[in-house]
Design goal:
Length: about 325
């Protein structure tokens, strides 16, 4: 059995998700062709879990990369675990399936393995990803997330999505879904920002208690040029504690940060468009952090968020994935 299979987690609906995934969101300066090449390289390295979204505007390229690797015999469709997400402008129940069908057409795939509500904040439907008023403020929509979830359940029933879950939800928002009368399917996962500076320990404990997998984006921190990133945060991969543990194990700080999540039972998304880094980030399945290492890494928690978009701050469901 391959190490990829060994590092899969069983979801609460019976499907399996590889615990190490390849993230594909990219700043605008990264050419879409680079995303396509990176996904093909990642498949060659051994990645089988790919995370994207309607918002990322790269699903055509990712779909092309996956289909090329299927065509050359590198993988079969059932070997690949692909995640997409419904954006806030599609959270009205009647629009959820429409969004998924748009993604599937771009991908030229018949189903996604996992479909997530990207953010717990409905936005005004339309062509604009971030609809704004004349003052530059986001235009929110009024939608019951429980109604959105019922539409997600229908996507699962239709076979267009094998599993369904959420992203950027805090405990209260998760409870809203879990306590919904007539709930048919629980979310299989909650994808949130999570790294040693924001270890989400309380949210992780809550998710585990309800058999919901926590998935970590920004597992390596983030230093990219996206406009919604906080600019003045310390660089996670330069942390002296992280670096010392990495040196002891003869690994890189990135490898230790990813391994930390796997040993906590958290699915980790690694993102890079450089071949050497793609390969390096995958080499986290063959070493073990000690209990002392894990304790030291736990102690780094500072509740630092790299992803903070002030445009969302007026919404009552902000901040997302709050520890409370």
């Amino acid at each position: 059995m391959s190490s990829v299979k060994l590092y899969s987690v069983k979801l609460n609906d019976g499907f399996f998700m590889p615990m190490l995934g390849f993230g594909t969101s990219a700043p605008n300066k990264v050419a879409k062709s680079e995303v396509e090449e990176a996904v093909m390289r990642a498949i060659d390295v051994g990645y089988r879990h790919f995370d994207s979204a309607y918002l990322y505007l790269n699903e055509e390229e990712i779909g092309r990369a996956i289909r090329k690797k299927i065509a050359d015999g590198s993988v079969k469709r059932e070997d690949v675990f692909y995640t997409s997400k419904v954006w806030g402008t599609f959270l009205r129940p009647e629009l959820v399936r429409t969004s998924l069908e748009i993604s599937l057409r771009k991908l030229q795939l018949s189903y996604v393995d996992l479909y997530l509500i990207h953010i717990p904040v409905p936005l005004k439907p339309g062509e604009e990803l971030f609809p704004k008023d004349e003052h530059g403020e986001l235009i929110f929509d009024t939608v019951d997330l429980c109604a959105t979830w019922e539409a997600m359940e229908k996507c699962k029933d239709s076979g267009l999505a094998k599993s369904i879950g959420v992203s950027n939800f805090n405990r209260e928002q998760l409870e809203r879904i879990l306590d919904k009368p007539g709930l048919k399917y629980k979310p299989v996962c909650n994808q949130v920002e999570c790294h040693p500076y924001l270890n989400q320990s309380k949210l992780l404990e809550f998710c585990k208690s309800h058999d919901i997998v926590l998935t970590a984006y920004a597992a390596l921190g983030s230093n990219s040029g996206k406009e919604w990133l906080s600019k003045n945060n310390p660089v996670l991969l330069e942390d002296p504690v992280l670096s010392a543990i990495a040196a002891w194990h003869r690994r890189t700080p990135a490898q230790v940060a990813l391994r930390y999540q796997l040993q906590r039972g958290v699915v980790a998304l690694a993102k890079s468009f450089k071949e050497a880094r793609i390969r390096e980030n995958f080499q986290v399945l063959d070493f073990q952090l000690t209990p002392e290492d894990m304790e030291s890494l736990d102690s780094l928690n500072r509740n630092i968020r790299y992803f903070v978009d002030p445009l969302f701050s007026r919404h009552p469901d902000f901040p997302f994935s709050d520890e409370c």
